[in-house]
Amino acid sequence: MTAIPLLFRIAWPDIGSGTQDVLYLGGPLLLVLFPLFSALLFPIGALLGTLAFASRRRMLWAGIVVAILLGVCGGLCEPPITPVLMRTLFSFGGIVAAIAIFLATDLLTTCVAVFFGSMLASGLPLMTVARGDLLSELLIAAAAPALIAIAFGIAGLMTKREVIYTYEDLAPHVKRIVERERVKAEIDAANRIQAALLPLDVPELAGASVASHYRAATEIGGDYFDFLPQPNGEIGIAFGDVSGHGLTSGIVMAMAKAALLVQVGADSSPRVVLEVLNEIVMKTAPKRILMTFFFGLLDPVTHTLRFASAGHLDPYVYRAASRRIEPLSSWGFPLGVRRRDPFREHTAEFAGGDRLILYSDGLIEALDDDGEPFGFDRFERVLADSGHMSADEIKKSLLAAVKKFTHNRPPEDDQTLVVVSFNEAEAQRSYVAGTVAVQAAETVN
Fold this sequence. Notes:
- The chain is α+β, with helices and mostly antiparallel strands.
- It folds into 2 domains: 3-163, no CATH class; 200-444, PPM-type phosphatase domain (Phosphatase 2c, domain 1), CATH 3.60.40.
- 54% of the residues lie in helices and 15% in strands.
- The protein has helices spanning 3-7, 18-26, 30-56, 60-73, 84-104, 107-129, 132-159, 172-197, 247-266, 270-284, 361-364, 375-386, 391-406, 425-444, and strands spanning 12-13, 81-82, 208-215, 223-229, 235-242, 291-299, 304-310, 316-319, 324-327, 346-349, 355-359, 415-422.
- β4 (223-229) and β5 form a beta hairpin.
- α3 packs antiparallel against α6 (107-129) and α9 (247-266) crosses α10.
- The protein is elongated, with a radius of gyration of 35 Å.
- Residues 426-445 have low confidence and may be disordered.
């Protein structure tokens, strides 16, 4: 590429640049040493490190931009020509070519290409103006590495052998790096699968609105929630929490999700759903792995909820008429525990303006810098203060309170939240009627 601007006379050798002076001072051997340095530094540092890091995070384009900037700043393939615009332009072309070779082939091929590219870029302009002994020395310095590379290539072709590197040929520390990358790739794949198991959008209900939040403590979480529309117009609300977090918890959660979908299609009765899930968890999940679970069928028309719970934290209900917080008590053993008593099914009714709040223990047990948990009392106070707001505003208030309390520390357990807000028209009428009744009573007295 360096010969192109010289042949078309859009650039010319920069006699006054430092390159020729260095060659006079250090000899033509520097024509080999500088490209050798570039061939080792740029492909290994800028390409192998930057592009591999960016590719793992699915940001290859950002890695390419950074690699180009590093090459430009390092003067890679920068020919000693003028004007500066031509020098920068053709240096940029050499860097892009090196990146393309790296992406298409391998590191060794890129190192060889960068070496000869840098050597030709810096040597050709000087050869056009050099005379006598300097020209001879430059030609010898440039020809020697080329002849050696050609000789190695011919020798390799004559042997007719194909050298294949296997995993066993790698050094022990390289094997450990490869293994870590393999595990990281599998965890990333599992994370994408788990994200697909959770609902992307909240359901649209005629008489209520829904808001949800999910944040895993690690790459793979053990919390689970879902919304399952039913043929009769009801909406199934599932909420689960596997003990611990990580890959094992994520697998149990995925298994429960699959079983839930099958069972709800056959019989969506909350009590039956939990009985079937309990049997599956007992038979398939590892020992000492438990899962709390809540499943309810919400009728958005009548504002009634039929539900059963397997040891999950009691949901809260904000009563708009009294402006008080009350739990939906539904005691039971977690899934995975052999039980004597069957699951019990309960029914709750909601007036307009009421709120239903389901949550995981990751919010209650969020710790501050002194190790103190957020706790139920603070949770209930935030609900009491924000219960009159919309579902999304309640969600934001709770999360903001937890974030402020923990000083934005990363969670140690998965945090999940679902808020259901019922139509407020009826609540407003009830509250106004109650206020009028109280004022009338005070007037009579």
